[in-house]
Specification:
This is Lipoprotein-releasing system ATP-binding protein. It holds the Pfam family ABC_tran. Keywords: ATP-binding, Hydrolase, Lipoprotein, Nucleotide-binding, Transport. GO terms for molecular function: ATP binding; ATP hydrolysis activity; transmembrane transporter activity. The protein has a domain at about 5-95 and about 165-225: P-loop containing nucleotide triphosphate hydrolases (Rossmann fold, 3-Layer(aba) Sandwich), CATH 3.40.50. It is about 35% helix and about 25% strand. It contains seven helices and ten strands. The strands form two sheets. The chain has a six-stranded mixed β-sheet, with helices on both faces. A four-stranded antiparallel β-sheet has the order 2-1-4-5, covered by helices on one side. Helix 6 (about 175-195) links the parallel strand 7 (about 165-170) and strand 8 (about 195-200). Bound molecules: adenosine-5'-triphosphate (ATP) and magnesium ion. Adenosine-5'-triphosphate binds near residues 21, 46 and 48.
Length: about 230
């Protein structure tokens, strides 16, 4: 079966001062439709760098990225932006919502950017906010929401365009365990309901264990399985 997402020998080298720093060494990775993959690894091991490349937010120094078997190497910035908007959902450690807009407006934003009309998209946005248990906070400005509520809003926003792949970089990293578990339970349940593929970077081994697969990034190489911490 053609993978939804495939990374072939992805490398990333940064220029640092007079020298260079290679963070990723020929990473190979396949994500099938509906599959949930966790990536763990020490701080600085390159997890965010890899996730950004998988999300076409950064370009690799070498290797190739394919989505449904189609290569990205020849796509221009505009095509990539359109692809990200329609096929990918993102959640980061810090929510990147617009604080002065309401939760509902934030959830609708990717659809408005894609040119959909507000009346058409609002019912789906309301439904998503209800699903993340925020119908009572719909009209609050994001700046007035708690950290957990902000991440649940970010989750609803990530799903409004019905993406095929959700990329999450430590979505619970900034929350206490109770709020973090609720965000993860919702993320997990909603991805399963929608057969949505997910790549999630996390430091939380309990959450990594609940995904279908787990890989560890170490010394720029992706290893199958978890490195047990003692
Ligand atoms: N734009 C850049 N220029 C130079 N070096 C960079 C750049 N971005 C990241 N790095 C370096 O690459 C390495 C990996 O960074 P990255 O943010 O991917 O790590 P991480 O695994 O996500 O860490 P954390 O768990 O702390 O979030 C780090 O050593 C970092 O300093
Ligand atoms: Mg990171």
């Amino acid at each position: 079966m053609t993978p939804l997402l495939e990374a072939r020998a992805i490398s990333k080298t940064f220029a640092v001062g007079d020298g260079e720093l290679t963070v990723l060494h020929e990473i190979n990775l396949k994500v099938q439709a509906g599959e949930m993959l966790a990536i763990v690894g020490a701080s600085g091991s390159g997890k965010s760098t890899l996730l950004k490349i998988l999300g076409t937010l950064d370009t690799p120094s070498g290797g190739e990225l394919l989505f449904n078997g189609e290569s990205f190497s020849r796509k221009n910035d505009r095509e990539l932006a359109r692809f990200r908007n329609s096929a990918l959902g993102f959640i980061f450690q810090f929510h990147h919502l617009m604080p002065e807009f309401s939760a509902l407006e934030n959830v609708m934003m990717p659809a408005l950017i894609a040119g959909r009309n507000k009346a058409g998209i609002e019912p789906a946005a309301r439904e998503l906010l209800a699903r993340v248990e925020l119908d009572h906070r719909r009209d609050h400005r994001v700046a007035e929401l708690s950290g957990g509520e902000q991440q649940r809003t970010a989750l609803a926003r990530a799903l409004i365009m019905q993406p095929a792949l959700l990329l999450a970089d430590e979505p619970t990293g900034n929350l206490d365990s109770r709020a973090g578990n609720l965000v993860f339970d919702l993320l997990h349940g909603m991805c399963r309901e929608r057969s949505l593929a997910t790549v999630m970077v996390t430091h939380n081994m309990d959450l990594a264990r609940r995904m279908d697969h787990c890989c560890t990034l170490k010394d720029g190489v992706l290893l199958a399985g978890r490195e047990e911490k003692d």
